[in-house]
Fold this protein.
Amino acid sequence: MLGKTAGGIYWMFRLLERNENTARLVEAGFRIALTRSQSPVSEWKSVIKTAGVETYYEIKYGTYDATNVIDFLLRDTSNPSSVMSTIENARTNARMVRTALTTEVWEAVNESWMTLKTLLNRPIQETELPTILGTIRRNCALVRGSMYGTMLRNEIFDFAALGIALERADNTARIINVKYHTFIPSTDFFGSSLDDIHWETILRSVSGYRSFGWANDNEMSASSIAEYLILDPRFPRSLKFCYTTLIQNLDNLSRNCTAVESCQIKANAVFTHLENNSIKSIFKYGLHSFMKDFIKETNELGSQIELNYQFYH
Amino acid sequence: MDIENSFFDEMYTKDGQVRAPYILYNQWLANQDSAKLIKKSREAEAFFRRIGITFNVYGKEMSKERLIPFDLIPRIIANTEWTHLAKGIEQRVRAINAFLLDIYGSQEILKAGHIPTELIHQNDAFLGQMIGMKPPGDVFTHIVGTDIVRTGENEFFVLEDNVRTPSGVSYMLENRETMLNMFPELFSQNKVQPVNNYPKMLKESLVSCAPKSCSEKPTIAILTPGIHNSAYFEHSFLADQMGVELVESQDLRVINGHVAMRTTRGYKNIDVLYRRVDDEYLDPLNFRPESMLGIPGIFDVYRAGNITIANAPGTGIADDKAIYSYMPDIIKFYTGETALLQNVKTWRCSEPRALQYVLENLSKLVVKEVHGSGGYGMLVGPAASKKELSAFTSKLKRNPKNYIAQPTLALSTVPIFTKKQLAPRHVDLRPFALVSPKKIKVTPGGLTRVALKAGSLVVNSSQGGGTKDTWVLGE
């Protein structure tokens, strides 16, 4: 397949994943702001930080409040990670690689784009936010569902899966990174309701609240949540799960080649590092530093993939 | 329905009788509830949007995608009419290929004095680099979209021979698909000839024109200028339907005497390139040194016989509007036959007497740029304001060579569906011919373009035209 097509598929699915992640961040932020348990300003600030668009936001607004943050994350096309920007760019990529998509996947992404364009063409009222966020999530599910249900398991699928897994790994890592302080046991707040709210927000922003409960018998603690997000091989947004997927799809891609690509070496190294650590050793090393290393490695892996598979000329 | 008396309507006679090809359709139509048809019409639009059959309009915002309006009343062509048309198109396409082979070869037609030599040699569409070249299989024009207009019962004219990179075939296919979805019963009642094997035939045709040096199954790719091109949908549609790669010039480069595309596994040779870019954007080394577009050196690969370019570079000389007027002679010269399809009378403004006539009768004529297309830069005399007429007069005087003029044709009408009633609108027809070394195949159908504005004669989609499904009835 063409390098350009591989790149287009990979980015299409990365952007769709980001689209959903951004919507989920807004949802979690909105929830915590509604509980009014603490300053909503710092909460919105960490949402913007997690989305990685702090600089863009501060140039534009300077202060943090719900209306501006929500508008910036959902509608603002000057923000490359906003829901509107990501669906627009995902669809442009889809048009570019139209010949590599099934009709179902193309129609799903094109319809999502049409729906969101109408939905987000005017400022959002607080009352309609839940419905809008629900629609965004449903549209992402529609595209992903069409992908899993109709696409041939060939290299096109592998590049799509790589895009999803890499974006997910990055997203989960960012959430932990921005919220690392809530994982550090403090005598004042340990076990307090404030911790519970923070943890719930974190879990909700990775769609993991309910599943965490199942997996851990509803025992919430800093270390059990961190372990779940980083090391649990069953949770589809944990770092370990994402890397298992990455390695699997990279292996598929190199099945007919004798040479091992540098991106494969990289992915295996990161995975081994996760394998060799326990949540204890991670806390001992420093959660913040661990996440920073991880984000850096994951970014490098992304660049390696682009290089190995000749996305650009 | 109101019938405009001066025009030939293809569905109804002047006294309101239904013409033969439309009889069954008309019976069906009489039984339809108009509210239901209005709903269907809306559904069709939603369908087109969903599958993304949109086009970009030049000069508009990059991201603006528009739909070409689809009218749900089919344009129906009787079998006998089609047989005549298809034979005429085949004859013309055969002559055009022979002409191109000759004009870039020994130029017998110039030696015989049928066409003035300077008309070829001073023509921008004549590509010097092609002199002495014989494309693989001797095919120059792999895909042709001949524009045909009708003015009466048995009066068909060729308006333009589009032999460069004709577009519109995706609409022929998608319009049919839409009709099949919306009104399946119509296709069990009427014997409509299928068009859906076009992509398969196109692929076969391209395969049959692969370079001689290509020993294995040829690798085919479609070259598009990219997603902002007005016909991008069609490029990706055809690539998808044929199962071939859709490439842009950045994906290609010349390696070891072959054109190769950048894949995830390194570079892979291409044998046949169906290009949807103009000649001048093909190769910056050979054609336009200042251009950043194109594949440097592709023409050298072509010259060495290692790639087929479809259509061949330089075919534009055959659909140049000044050459058009010589087409009856060209057909006679190469086939020995009289042209089956008529040419529209054409005044070449480069000739002083013709220019004088054109200037004196401007308000009755259609004036076109010799190299223009898409309905841009043309004057429709009867519809033009005084200001436009005087502006064109000075243009003509300044650069007469750049223009030709034709009588304003009384284009036939076919009704379109409107909320109130059926309304006659002018149409043209673009059937598609595929050329391989052994045969020429014309797909039974084509793109019918329809001017949606009452009275308008301009059917171009870029100027507000719509399309219809085109039915060719079986025997």
Notes: Chain A touches chain B at residues 1-6, 92, 95-96, 98-99, 103, 106-107, 110-111, 114, 155, 253, 257, 309-310, 313 (CB under 8 Å). The mean pLDDT of chain A is 91. Residues 58 and 64 of chain A are 9 Å apart (CA to CA).
